[in-house]
Amino acid sequence: MSSPEVKKQVEEYVEWECRGKAKVIHSKPEQTYNELGFNVTIWNVKTDNDGSWWVAQGDLPMNLYPQDQAYYFSTDEVFSFHLGIMLRLMNDEGQQT
Fold first, then answer.
1. Calpha distance 17→54 (Å, rounded)
2. pLDDT for residue 97
3. What is the pLDDT of residues 38-53, one digit of tens each?
4. Rounded to whole angstroms, how far apart are CA atoms 81 and 94?
5. Distance (Å, whole) CA 88 – CA 44
6. How far apart are CA 40 and CA 79, in angstroms?
7. What is the 3 state secondary structure string of 42-56?
8. Range of the domain at 35
9. How many other C-beta atoms lie within 10 A of the C-beta of residue 78?
């Protein structure tokens, strides 16, 4: 279960990413994953005029993924993509030092 503070952070993040052109009208955590030591919750977020979003939130940097354009059909697909891209970014950063 998520706290009200986390819910607020997720909603503010979506509104910020929408550049102030949309307001969140509904959000709820759909599923939490624990893989490779990372806890990530996938949120289902609806806005008033910028569609629906999956938001990955947790131990990795937060990011959103569109639902309406049918790139990501399920929480599992979103989590798999999010974890993969974050691991690649961390690997790239580690090789630059």
1. 13
2. 55
3. 999 999 999 999 999 9
4. 20
5. 25
6. 8
7. EEEEEECCCCEEEEE
8. 4-96
9. 27
Give the distance, in angstroms, between the CA of residue 11 and the centroid of all CA atoms in the same chain.
11
Q: Which residue has the tokens 């959103």?
A: 64
Residues contacting 16, CB < 8 A, separation 6+: none
CA 20 distance to own-chain centroid = 18
Number of compact structural domains in the chain: 1
- Sequence-distant (≥ 6) Cβ neighbours of residue 23 within 8 angstroms: 15, 47, 48
Contact 74, 67 (CB under 8 A): no
Q: Give the up-direction half-sphere exposure of residue 60: CA atoms within 13 A in the CB hemisphere.
A: 27
- Taking the alpha carbons of 49, 50, 51, 56 in that order, is the dihedral positive or negative? negative
